[in-house]
């Protein structure tokens, strides 16, 4: 029995690294995640035990997944009742966004944070393509940076074209296992290629027709960085939905809402909509909680409540 780390998932095959050698492996039997159905039972970043069944070609079979310190999961985009594991055993996550080309969807940031927050995974929001920002875009960035840094998230401004913020971005990655995520077209691959050119991620231009990004990453893959650390590059995310969350989970994982909820009349059971003596609604009215964050919270709450109970269980 050998022990290794999963560095690539291609659906039916998992590439496991053991002592600087990679073994294509399959799985036998069913692996589940807290009784949830999974479209991919093994995640990039998993530590596994495996046996080599074909010594000539180096094919192996994963026998056991070792305990995970954390994981990042999403609702499967293809099977609405199932979950899709994105990565496991990460030290931090970096979400790449941009204000223009493609245009920023504010709700997407909060949706992504709802994936990492329950597992206390430190998350940095990187605003890329700063060379394309107008003066108004810069002002908008300054506003968003203030909002997210005030509630405890790190925010960085970068440009793969001009080099702005690249040293800080590279420093973030050093000696950590980092999940890198973002919607297609935000320049994720170009950014990585500037700070770690040996990785050489594929890049693709925005679609001239839609102005949206096109997927360049098909499967999650781990890359080891010179000088220490590893990067898990995930496929471009179009949408995020949450069949595995309850309404209360949303309230508990919006940091500032959770903080103010301690003063609500109904405490932890308050959903901060129509309840009397709600400290969260008061904080929104007084400007202590940003209105767009509160609106995103309400939208997510409604979306999850509308999902059939059986979709969430």
What does this structure look like?
With 313 residues, the protein is an alpha/beta fold. It folds into three domains: 2-67, Nucleic acid-binding proteins (OB fold (Dihydrolipoamide Acetyltransferase, E2P), Beta Barrel); 82-233, Rossmann fold, CATH 3.40.50.300; 247-312, Ribonucleotide Reductase Protein R1, domain 1 (Orthogonal Bundle). Helix content is 27%, strand content 24%. It has nine helices and 13 strands. The protein has helices at 106-116, 135-150, 166-173, 188-195, 247-253, 255-261, 279-285, 291-306, 309-312, and strands at 2-9, 14-18, 21-27, 47-54, 59-65, 71-75, 83-88, 92-97, 123-127, 154-157, 177-182, 221-224, 230-233. It has a six-stranded mixed beta sheet, sandwiched between helices. A five-stranded mixed barrel has the order 1-2-3-5-4. Strands 6-7 form a two-stranded antiparallel ribbon. A hairpin with a 5-residue loop joins strand 12 and strand 13 (230-233). Helix 1 (106-116) packs across helix 8. The chain is globular and about 70 Å long. The chain starts with a strand and ends with a helix.
